[in-house]
Amino acid sequence: MNQPLICMTLTGKTLEEDLKLVKKYEKYIDMVELRVDHLNEDEQLSARRFPAMIYQPCILTIRRDIDGGQFTGGDFARTNLFARALAFANPDKSKNFAFVDFEEDYHIPSIQDAAMAFGVRIIRSCHSMKEPILNIRERCDIMRKTGYEIPKIAFMPHSLSDVLNLLKEGESMTQYEHILCAMGAEGFPSRLLASRTNSFLTYVSPEEVLENTKAIGHIDPVTINEMYHFKSINQDTSLYGIAGWPLLKTSSPEIHNKGYEAKKLNAVYIPYRSQLISDTLSFCEGIGVKGLSVTIPHKESVMYYIHEQSPEVAQIGACNTIVRKNNKWLGYNTDAPGFRRALEEFLGPVKIKHKKVAVIGAGGAAKAIVYVLKQMGARVCIFNRTVETAAQLAEKYGFNYCQLDPHCMAKLDEYSTLIVQTTSVGMNSEGPSSAENDPIYFYDFRGNELLFDIVYEPSTTPVMKRAALAGCRVCNGYKMLEYQAYEQFKLFTGLNYEEKK
């Protein structure tokens, strides 16, 4: 089968809006899908003009609301729109729609005959917005009644095991062109690994209208090309990635994939999203993933599934990196060296030996950070909403602990030479400080504290903004992310990410 094409879905309200998007992204795409159901009503009547306005092959799609689209009219109205868009074919085929998307239950002989007569290929699609589809090969064979349709299956998985089934079934489907896709956050790998399912194409959406297709898991054309190097992914590509949930935003793919490109490695790093680490590991074993970064909320639960662990993992009690060797998962912790390097850069000449340091949170990241602070000789107090968890971690190192609430003000003030914020509170939050986005919203900064927040998205969290306004030196978690990723890169590939000076 040929390398999958990149098809950009157009969900603008006018043809002119869609045309501008095609021009902007044309070097990143192979074809487009005009979603007539998203056009204004008067614009829908003019859809016929669109193929002649662009240079890429175009799919005509009028998606019903029951299939995840916006068309709410009846079949009669939709048939009229299809007829109008396909009629008056131009002798120059490049100025006609190259494909038309009909659902598996939509059979209007006159429309189908017109499409065939004008050389318009039919994509016969099945969309399941709530349930996974398991008998993929069988369904594709049935949809391909006449032998010329391109069957398409898109479904919302319940778990990564549903996505694994799609990838496995697609691997053996080489006899005819087809399109297979699992939607939503969990289905994302199926879009990037379209070459594994021998899919004819994968769908993307322009960044400007990404909200229209975000729920089903689209990404933009620039990201799929420049971050994931989609056109280079093949059956021999080594797979790595990051396991977490909900994993709305992560910079790890950018860091790792940039490294693979620089070292000319045939490898790709992909987010694998699941609420259960067991689900993620089964999926990754099934598709041959060689290494994983592990993030919230799996850094501790993953330890039940690793076969061997480094001394640091055993001491820290959390694991953020696993490598697959000889059918076993080996566990490591790169958060610790990543944090230490980033912290030392932030501190500069300041030494924290014997200084009082506050750690906010007691989760997987906090465990690695407290381990480092112990090595550096700091005197630490761990603040956590669940005081029992803080106590358990603190007692391991002979540190102090306190419940994280407004009553801990005096204690926090006592340990405020350096405050290390290790929770996810504030992640993806741009608003003013509040109890929801600032874990120490009740604390009044004096201006001489040092604040290190391991969150890096946004680059300035609400608590960082508040501390900086008071005159404090602040640092986000991006350098920690970067440095721990370099350590992971070495574990995954055996190569140094950074050129040695």
UniProtKB/TrEMBL annotation:
Q: Where does shikimate bind?
A: 250-252, 295, 320, 335, 456, 484
Matching InterPro entries, A to Z?
A: Aldolase_TIM, Aminoacid_DH-like_N_sf, DHquinase_I, NAD(P)-bd_dom_sf, Shikimate_DH-bd_N, Shikimate_DH_fam, Shikm_DH/Glu-tRNA_Rdtase
Keywords on record? Amino-acid biosynthesis, Aromatic amino acid biosynthesis, NADP, Oxidoreductase
Q: State the top-level EC class.
A: oxidoreductase
Q: Where are the active-site residues found?
A: 299 (proton acceptor)
Q: Indicate the secretion signal residues.
A: none
Q: Which Pfam families match?
A: DHquinase_I (PF01487), Shikimate_DH (PF01488), Shikimate_dh_N (PF08501)
Which Gene3D superfamilies did the record assign?
Answer: Aldolase class I, Leucine Dehydrogenase, chain A, domain 1, NAD(P)-binding Rossmann-like Domain
> By its UniProt entry, which CDD domains does this protein fall under?
DHQase_I, NAD_bind_Shikimate_DH
Q: Where does NADP(+) bind?
A: 361-365, 454, 477
- Per UniProt, residues of the Shikimate dehydrogenase substrate binding N-terminal domain are 243-322
Q: Does the keyword Transcription regulation apply?
A: no
Keyword Cell membrane assigned: no
Q: Which SUPFAM superfamilies match?
A: Aldolase (SSF51569), Aminoacid dehydrogenase-like, N-terminal domain (SSF53223), NAD(P)-binding Rossmann-fold domains (SSF51735)
Q: Which residues form the Quinate/shikimate 5-dehydrogenase/glutamyl-tRNA reductase domain?
A: 351-424
Q: What is its EC number?
A: 1.1.1.25
Name the GO terms of the biological process aspect: amino acid biosynthetic process; aromatic amino acid family biosynthetic process; chorismate biosynthetic process; shikimate metabolic process
Q: Which PANTHER family match?
A: BIFUNCTIONAL 3-DEHYDROQUINATE DEHYDRATASE_SHIKIMATE DEHYDROGENASE, CHLOROPLASTIC (PTHR21089:SF1), SHIKIMATE DEHYDROGENASE (PTHR21089)
The role this protein plays is: Involved in the biosynthesis of the chorismate, which leads to the biosynthesis of aromatic amino acids. Catalyzes the reversible NADPH linked reduction of 3-dehydroshikimate (DHSA) to yield shikimate (SA).
Family affiliation: Belongs to the shikimate dehydrogenase family.
Its subunit composition reads: Homodimer.
Family matches, as HAMAP family: Shikimate_DH_AroE
Q: What is this protein called?
A: Shikimate dehydrogenase (NADP(+))
Q: Which taxonomic lineage does the organism of this UniProt entry have? A: Bacteria, Pseudomonadati, Spirochaetota, Spirochaetia, Spirochaetales
